[in-house]
Amino acid sequence: QVQLVESGGGLVQPGGSLRLSCAASGSIFRIVAMGWYRQDPGKQRELVASINAGQSTNYADSVKGRFTISRDNAKNTVYLQMNSLKPEDTAVYYCNARAYSSYKDWGDYWGQGTQVTVSS
Known about the structure:
Blueprint: E1 2-7, E2 10-12, E3 18-26, E4 30-39, E5 46-52, E6 57-59, E7 67-72, E8 77-82, E9 91-100, E10 106-110, E11 114-118
Parallel strand pairs: 2-11
Antiparallel strand pairs: 1-3, 3-8, 4-5, 4-9, 5-6, 7-8, 9-10, 9-11
């Protein structure tokens, strides 16, 4: 199994910045892609950004130009730099990894979530 541990959430004023980190550990054969999702109470979980092993990235339209996802393959860690934060960015942010635990066994793994609150 693969475990994901997130850090870096918190309270920030509008216009501020936060950096989220997510480290993967456990039985990792290969990580195909990592990403960040967010969820507000009563809403569906939505993709914020993703990055594959080749460093290709994908962003939700609402965060393009403000958020940057990056990945350290050697450390099995993904980061989300969030700038120019808005109140509507407030949510629980979840780390996701699609990973192989052997040459043939793969799964989607989730972190426990970290709260990001943007408020004055």
